[in-house]
Design goal:
150 residues; mainly beta; ten-stranded antiparallel beta sheet
Length: 150
Amino acid sequence: MKKVIYLVLSFFLGCLLTYLHFNYNLTQRSFDLNRDGIPDVQYLFRPNHILKKMRIDRNHNGSDDTVIDYDRYGVPINEHSDDNFDGVYDTDIEYKWGLVSKIKIDTDQDGKYEAILLYDNGVLDSIVYLENGQERTRDELPNLKVIGER
């Protein structure tokens, strides 16, 4: 019975130490693109020098406008972007095997997504339009403006 307890405790201790090693021993590299003394691009690396997170300040105001998370192999998992620079993320991008799988967009900054773009192997497959949480077709949304349409 004692051996089983030691085995279980050793397993949990090993898991804990592995987690701490890959998540708390991070190295940061920063770049100041406009030379104002505030980093505009920050890379966070794991101890094995694989990228964990990237933060980008696109309008140079000191706050993150784009944050990209990476898995333990350095492949992107998800991305959050503030496209109108109001401090709230408007676009969420999900990746599957490093390729875009889903993009959710809040076009009117009300905190609700108006469109979800679905991708298959990184190629746009379909678009789901949302209005008040309900799926709509493009024909059901007369006020929908599509870029490039006249």
